[in-house]
Amino acid sequence: MKRCLSLTNPSDSVHIARVIVDVPSKQTDRPFDYAIPREMEPWIEIGSRVGVPFGPRTIQGIVIDRVNGTNIPSKKLKPIQQLLDLVPPLPPDLVRLAEWMSHQYVCTFTAALQVMIPSALKGRTEKALRLGTEALRLLDTQPVVDDWDENGVGADDSFWQQSDEELELGKWSGEQTLIGWLNRELLHQPMYRRLLAYVQQHEPITAEKLLQTFPYAAKAIRASLYAGWLVEIERIKDRIGVKKLKCVCLTMSEEEALAFSAGLKAKRQQETMEHLLAMNGEAPLKDLNASAVKALADKGVVQIEDREVLRDPYKERHFKPTQPLPLTDEQATVYSQLQEALDREKAKTFLLHGVTGSGKTEVYLQSIERCLASEREAIVLVPEISLTPQMVERFKGRFGAKVAVLHSRLSQGERYDEWRKIREGSVSVAIGARSAIFAPFRRIGLIIIDEEHETSYKQEETPKYHARDVAIERAVQHGAVVVLGSATPSMETYYAAKMHGYDAQARGLERPIWDVELLEMPTRVAGRPLPPVTVVDMREQLKIGNRSMFSAPLEEALEDRLAKGEQVVLLLNRRGYSTFIMCRTCGYVAQCPECDISLTYHMKTEHLRCHYCGYTERSPQTCPDCESEHIRFFGTGTQRVEEQLARRFPGIRVIRMDVDTTTEKGSHEKMLQQFRERRADVLLGTQMVAKGLDFPYVTLVGVIAADSALHMPDFRAAEKTFQLLTQVAGRAGRHHLPGEVVVQTYAPEHYSIVHASGHDYKAFSSEELRMRRARLVPPFCRLALLTMTHEELPLLVRAAENAVLRIKEIAEEWGLLKPLHGAVQAVDVFGPVASPIPRIKNKYRFQCTIKCRGEVDLPSLVSAALKTLEPMTREQGVLFHVDVDPQMMM
Ligand SMILES: Nc1ncnc2c1ncn2[C@@H]1O[C@H](COP(=O)(O)OP(=O)(O)OP(=O)(O)O)[C@@H](O)[C@H]1O
Ligand SMILES: [Zn+2]
Ligand SMILES: [Zn+2]
């Protein structure tokens, strides 16, 4: 950690900062008090990142509060050692959100804070200041007076010390006042202009150095930072630097340059001058002819300078600007409701249930426009997988440079730069996957979650948050509107929307978690029909002697499209398919030596890898058990389908998209582009091909094995199957050409397949909800999954049994085990049982499930339980992991 400001005598300080230290353990999961040294006084606020002494070390922490007193005796009170950023990385509302998360998901406060900070910031950083564009303009129009002396110390030093009250620094809402104050007072002070001029001459300059020259200027610097007159740049050592660009600049005025250019004989040089003039006197070196620049530089007409640039991953792409479309009646009805809610500026959540191709995106776009018009910002969440150029294009096309894109495939530096644009307020729309919900905007008006049913909105590592819950909570803080959009809403959200309007009493034990209002768009834009679906019973195919992967109807349809030059999407449901190595002679399956799970085969490197612990080995050529050579890869299936396609339809152009072919950065995008340009006939893939794509020439969608996920031990299996089929069917016939879908299955009578083929969400959801109610699974209860791990099995078994007893006792003490409404208890504890993966990294795993209904505060119950289990961790080393509202029951 690099020091920004040094400390003096801590005993001078009376102000206290409450700091959450970055040590993710239960024992340290509380605020620690530190004295604020006087120099740091104006800089420390809620959300500041600081370095503090902790035991023998200095560690990082986040200030969550400032107070005037502490119980810590003054001898023991330690001062903050370092301030890591001049503008805090987290605004106060995100700090509050992190506190809420730590309660909801039973994780440490610091884990929740850290997930909000871009990883680029966690490297070693060095801070410096430069002028903002406003300040540059000011200095151009009102140059600093001549009596400027290099040290900048003038007679009006006393100026810096006044106006403390007026400033009201640290309040985000005070910004307007602050900018007003700057305009009214500060800018007329020659001293302030000197400060800016000094920065201009020495930029980038560290705050430390600036303060040496202007010892009293701390508050003015801070005010300037808030107002954008000064901009803080971060140079991150080791990890990522700020990107520099070589620029060529004119050294003379426009008239002089014109005259000079007119007199030039060399054509290249003349062109270069004209280009520079057209670009307002400055252009990147790489855009110009290097030898012409060299010649001009030798004549002293231009010079080359380093410019700091924000990396823009989409810079190379041109986005065609789009205009709002006239809305269809359905869209207009939905939009007017959203508009009304937006104008009210009160928190509210909607579910937009619109069939595939109903034009949800256009509704999003126009709602965002409305939101921006009232000077508020918008966040759009999409599943990582649909963060394709096509999706980005729609938002960039409408809002241009106002859009920041947060994409996990961006480099760390690119991601960090996008994040900075959000924090600095130079963009007003953020689009990204799950973690974009933490975009550090200050006045959020609208949060859109597209494909809200996607499981990728749930983070599977600590903090195990769900972006949907977090969005709803953030919206409450900001008075924002949340739109959950989907053609196949999750049962949780749909049930909540169905219950909207029933009072809490009537809902009783079946009360949904959120209050959601339902909006519907049941038809496709322009009256386009949903494609007809043919369900093929594969058992029948076998009976008539067809042993190939393709049923007769699918084969015919494929042939037909190839003849017509139309395109096909083929989906292989990957869940349930294997990626392991098996010996066909003895049945040996390569397993991780540390975990009870088969190793995954990676084709590119010919390695076997454990998905859980990272263990890797070379793929064996012969079976380690029986030495047979018939040991082979049981592929994802897509590879086999590809082989068969090539054999059956010689010359067919197939793009295979799965985990093996999309590991490289940008490969996913490239493939889709290639398909869009009709340089392939078939797009073959796993789940990846099912979502969000909109290709006009796709008229056939084939699903190879629709039911492979139905037999997973997961109460959401039917829901997932229905969603996948409906989504992929929705890719066909979205434009002028009519589409068709062929679904191959061994379970044609299963309700998820029957209703998906009828595009009947309502029928599916009512049947599914009936089943869920009968089995008492979400949304008719909430679950928490508690996983316990230890190296020794007998010890773990005993501990797990004790733990379950303890939890039952607590539920009993809380009066929650009493039967409510007949036989149904408010809290039920199941287990312990061995986890579906019973051993990971040499540790055995047991789990229990806590189920609760009605108004039970599940997080509080779980965290009370964990507290009483702490001695087990301390004395026996048993570890506990909690997942509140789990999406995966592992
Ligand atoms: N008002 C409109 N007038 C004309 N065309 C429209 C209108 N609204 C949307 N469209 C077009 O309809 C098509 C489908 O819209 P869109 O992709 O937004 O649907 P969607 O509801 O998001 O579907 P999915 O859930 O499948 O992603 C797009 O090509 C879009 O440009
Ligand atoms: Zn073998
Ligand atoms: Zn392993």
Automatic annotation (TrEMBL):
Binds 2 zinc ions per subunit. Keywords: ATP-binding, DNA replication, DNA-binding, Helicase, Hydrolase, Isomerase, Metal-binding, Nucleotide-binding, Primosome, Zinc. Residues 618-801 form the Helicase C-terminal domain. Its cofactor is Zn(2+). Zn(2+) 2 binds at residues 592, 595, 610, 613. Residues 341-507 form the Helicase ATP-binding domain. It is an enzyme of class 5 (isomerase). Initiates the restart of stalled replication forks, which reloads the replicative helicase on sites other than the origin of replication. Recognizes and binds to abandoned replication forks and remodels them to uncover a helicase loading site. Promotes assembly of the primosome at these replication forks. This is Replication restart protein PriA. The gene is priA.
